[in-house]
Amino acid sequence: MKIMLDFFLGHYAYWFVIILLCIGAYGILFKKNLIKKTIGLAVLQISVVLYFVSIASKWDATVTVMDPDIPLDQVANYLNPLPHTLMLTAIVVGVATLGVAFTLLIAIYNRYETLDEEELIDKIQ
Amino acid sequence: MIESHLPAYIALTFVLFSVLIPAFGLWRSELSHPIAVLGGGIAAGFSLFGFIDVINDGSIRYFFGGWEPPVGIEFVYDGLSAFFVLVINAVAFFVLIHSHHISKREFPGKEMPYYSLAMLMMLGFNGMIMTGDLFNLYVFLEIASLAGYALIAIGDRPAPYAAFRYLIIGTAGGTLYLLGVGFMYTVTGTLNIIDMAAMLPMLYESNAVFAALILMIVGIGVKAALFPMHGWLPDSYTYASSSSTALIAPIGTKVAAYILFRIILWLFGIEITDAVAPISYFVGVLACIGILYGSIMAIAQSEMKRMLAYSSISQIGYIIMGLSLANPWGFAGALLHVLNHAIMKACLFMISGQLRLKEGHSDISRFDDGYRKKYPWTMTYFTIAAISMIGLPPLAGFFSKWYLALGTIDNSNWLFLAVILISSLLNAVYFFRVLEKVYMMDPSKGQKEPTDAKRDEASASMLWPTGILALSLIVIGFANAVIVGVLLDIFPM
Asked: Per the domain annotation, does B435 fall within a domain?
């Protein structure tokens, strides 16, 4: 029991990521409103961003700036900055995607005056 | 000296021209087309030069800022990437020439943003092919995809909705790929493909590697329109403007297929791919279902662009089936099919664009035998491309299917062989349906010749690119032994 509990608590960041991933996938697959689908997409992207952030976080470690008190042979005391810097790019990509998505939604609304998927499919056919 | 910087030049050409087009296009809108053609031509020239160079002198690794991987990032320009870069840039060059009149007719006044976005999309595709780094691959994938969504949204009335659906599915796929990259990074601590490939044999049968492989195949499979993930493709290709479709259809799914090649054969290697479960066979079965599904759905369509879109799903299946065989013949057949299908699909979509421009529609049920009088050359090129799609010798399409069939026989995989043969028959059904409309007399009209049909051929800027692509199919058909000899050298095992 204790091992089970440790397993859950020890990986709590990953459980949040999994929950967020499921919420995002649910929004994309089952929501009928296109705005809600877009929100689901954003949640899905953010869950992956949080995954990358959490794999690089570390207790009792410091930022990746050379500290005279921590010699380089104790390199485990520094954080790995790479996943965080990668995520800066991924966040920018996510923002750009949302921008394009909302542009398309405006174009759809101007043409069909609805953002409900079922109504939209009726109007297209 | 120039050779070692060549990969960067190709990418920089597209960056430069994506900026030059707005700069000149704001001043004179009609300049944007010639500048785009110039950019495409320069890039195609560089890729041809680079391909010859790689064949003669071996692959080029370009380190950005002189930082060597795994610390720095790099472009890897080896046989496979040189081949793909040459194919997509050459096809894009002809499509860009062809799009002059269509762009004026289908989206007047928007040529400048269109060509600028086309350059950005080509930058993304070239970057995806050349990069040696999994995370950069994701960034280039998103550059190409975002530009692609915008290009698809230019078009008929439902085009933005088709583009939006593609955006949702495509970005979800890209995100799954990124999660797979995250798994690979946690277990190997590197993002460089060559570096990671050297570490993976130590992680044989690791669950994280297995999960990452599945996530990457699913994520990239969305972009490649591998069978269950193909839902975005028919609507996008049908509703997008003819010039966008002609640009995206031959290139987009091929580049995604390239990534599957790179991941399965180069990064993981076929042994690690199949270590936990027979992934490559499973992918091959999906490809087979896609081949049959695409062909059957194509028969049911009356709109030519939609028929060609379903045919794309079927043809991408051949390429991925060749990958899943993982033997030299299947590999050579798949790569030859990449070349052939890019040319055939570009040619066919360009012809559908020409017909839309002249007739205002591309509905097969309204085709009649006057077309061969009105558009003698267009229909000749259509016939060549269609026969090549079906796979009759001596045209190029026959040889790629031939080598794929040799690959299936090599693996004793009779199921896949049967799929290739059945699908060729189905291809014949949907293309001969069009040829019958155009070349056979309509029995309900009686024996009289169509008199109202005058010769009304498309302009030279559209006929020449289509004609060159159609003729190159014959040339590739005759030169197939040479090309396959080169392709067999690329095979990694």
From this structure: yes
User: What ipTM does this complex have?
Assistant: 0.93
Query: Does B172 reach chain A within 8 Å, measured CB to CB?
Result: yes
Distance CA A120, CA B14 (A): 37
Looking from the CA of B206 toward its CB, the CA atoms found within 13 Å total 16
Using CB atoms and an 8 Å cut-off, which of residues 109-168 of chain B contact chain A? 135, 138-139, 142, 146, 149-150, 153, 157-158, 160-161, 163-164, 167-168
What is the rounded distance in angstroms from the CA atom of residue A70 to the CA atom of residue B469? 64
Number of domains in chain B: 1
> Is B490 a domain residue?
yes
**Structural domain harbouring B469:** 283-493
Q: Does B107 lie at the interface with A, CB-CB under 8 angstroms?
A: no
Supply the angle between the helices A2-10 and A12-30 in degrees, to the nearest 10: 60
Whether the CB-CB separation of B186 and B208 falls below 8 Å is answered with: yes
Interface-testing mutation among B73, B154, B167, B195, with chain A (most A C-beta atoms within 10 A): B167
Give the structural domain span for A109. Answer: 2-124
- Could you tell me if residue B407 is inside a domain? yes
CATH number at residue A69: 1.10.287.3510
How confident is the model over B111-160, as pLDDT tens digits?
888 999 999 999 999 999 999 899 999 999 999 999 999 999 988 888 99
Q: Are B96 and B57 in contact (CB under 8 A)?
A: no
pLDDT in tens, B303-360: 889 999 999 999 999 999 999 988 889 899 999 999 999 999 999 999 998 888 888 8
Chain B residues touching residue A112 (CB < 8 angstroms): 161
With contact defined as beta carbons under 8 Å apart, do B227 and B310 qualify?
Answer: no
The answer to whether residue B175 is domain-embedded is no
pTM: 0.93
Q: Please tell me the distance from the alpha carbon of residue B171 to that of residue B482, in angstroms, as a whole number.
A: 39
Provide the domain count of chain A: 1
